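Dear Dr. H.,

I hope your travels went smoothly. While you were away I took the liberty of generating a structure for the chain from your last submission, since the lab meeting agenda had it listed for discussion. I wanted you to have the full record in hand beforehand rather than looking at slides cold. The sequence, exactly as received, is reproduced here:
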Amino acid sequence: MTELRKLYPAYNPYQTGYLDTEDGHQIYWELCGNPKGKPAVFLHGGPGGGIADYHRQLFDPEHYHIMLFDQRGCGRSKPHASLENNTTWHLIDDIERLRKLMGVDKWLVFGGSWGSTLSLAYAQKCPDSVSELVLRGIFLLRPQELQWYYQAGASRFFPEKWERMLSILPEEECTDVITAYNKRLTSDDLAVRTEAARLWSVWEGETVTLLPSKYGDAFSEEHFALAFARIENHYFINNGFLDETQQLLDHIDVIRHIPAVIIHGRYDMACQLQNAWDLAKAWPEAELHIVEGAGHSFDEPGILHHLINATDKFIGK
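The corresponding predicted structure, in token form, is as follows:
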């Protein structure tokens, strides 16, 4: 039996800084690994999730030169939980500015969950900047995907957790949970915002792994939850600021030539396997791995194994 791959040993960035977007945001970034290695950028999930130290460990530090950054409003980026000038297209501009700051022409783009959405949107907008794509837990931001996770679908697998999500809503608002939460997450009352943020965030934290995870508690922490919930809801109520409901699938021809690996857990409750299947059907040149016995999170053993294999595969390309 093949031994499952694990994260590379922990290592620190060799340089950190802030990118001034000139429209009200300061983007925290860090460079890791070998400055002469293969360029790569890590796009975190959420939106609003932020980077963590262990995300660096998805790349071999001897062979990769990695840019990680906190997207607008989250993590160490400033101002915290800000929704102003915070859209998919602003983030794509940030990614391009960070690429130029790093001084590279092309880089491997790695994204999971919302990071897969942003990776696809970025690659389709800037195909000449992308050498390869590693995509996990595919999220295409179609209406049916939001309906599944925030209305009727995942709720049937976690009825007790969904009941807690609905606990602050009057019955008449339960038919449109994203809109109902948007009112509370943008309230002038900090207590109202915080209560809604924690409930929204914990719903995701408790449903993204096949089995309960040690990382679940972090989703209830106030600082994290406020950014995560506000930014995520802001993007979802605006359909990710995409122009078309099938935009990411309909524009695959723009990136068909880019080598890509798609990795998705069979029992992913946040983003159904159908998303990855639809992407692979539209993009048969991409390499699809369906991981049995896995949910959504990157650190589920089978998913992590394929992610490490994917980054290793592209070394030297």
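Two observations you may find useful: The chain is about 35% helix and 15% strand. The longest strand covers residues 26-33.

With kind regards,
E. W.
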